[in-house]
Amino acid sequence: MHIKTTPLYRTRTARLPRHLKVLIAALALVAPVMAAGVSRDLPREQDFILTAYYSPLPGQCCYVKGGYRADKVLNGEGTNGADGTEVYPGMIAAPSSYAFGTVVALPGIGRFAVHDRGGAIVELDGAHRLDIWVGYGEEGLARALAFGVRRVRGTVYEVGGFQPKVKNPASRPSLRLGLERRASLATRDRTA
Q1: What are the pLDDT digits (tens) for 150-159?
Q2: Model pTM score
Q3: CATH class, 44-191 region
Q4: CA distance linking residue 64 with residue 84, whole number of Å
Q5: Which of 35, 47, 71, 183 could make an S-S bridge to 63, C-beta 3.0–4.6 Å?
Q6: What residues does each domain of the chain span?
Q7: Residues 75, 79, 83, 86: is their CA dihedral positive or negative?
C-alpha cells in the first residue's frame, strides 16, 4: 500500500473565476473616476453666513468688546491675513477647507479672495461662515456693524480651476458706509 504525502510547504492556491477577474478590473478602472467626485475645475454653489470684521486702532471712541486689546483678540492683529497678505477691503476669512486664493462670488456684493482664517469661521450645517475685512479704526468698525449678518448663496471657484478676476473692492457701495448713512446713525443715537 502506497501512502501519498503532501509536504506542508506546498499549498494549493485558490483561483478566481474569470468573471470575478473581469469585474475587479472594471472596478479598478471606474473607481478613480467615481472617487474624484466633482472636478475642482468646476465652480460650485454654497450657502454662506457673512459678517464683516475690522482692525482696531488705539484711541478709538468705541470698540465692539469694550477695549483695544479685546478687539484685537476678536479680530486679530489686523495687518496681515493668515497667508501673509496685507489686509485690504474685501479680503475674506474662510474655513480651513478653503485653500488660500480660492475665489468666492457673492451676488450683489462682489467677488472675493480667501486670505485669512478665524476662530469662529467654520462650516456649519449647510452654510459656511465668511468674514469680510472692511477697514481700520472707527471707520472699519462702522462698516462692520452696518454690514451686519447676511445669508447669501454664492459660487466657489477653487484654486487650480477657472477663477474669475477679483476687482478692487474698496469702491464697492455695498461695503462702504457713506457719510450720510453714518450721520443718520449718529443722529438716531443722540435722539434715543
Answers
A1: 999 999 999 8
A2: 0.66
A3: mainly beta
A4: 25
A5: 71
A6: 44-191
A7: positive
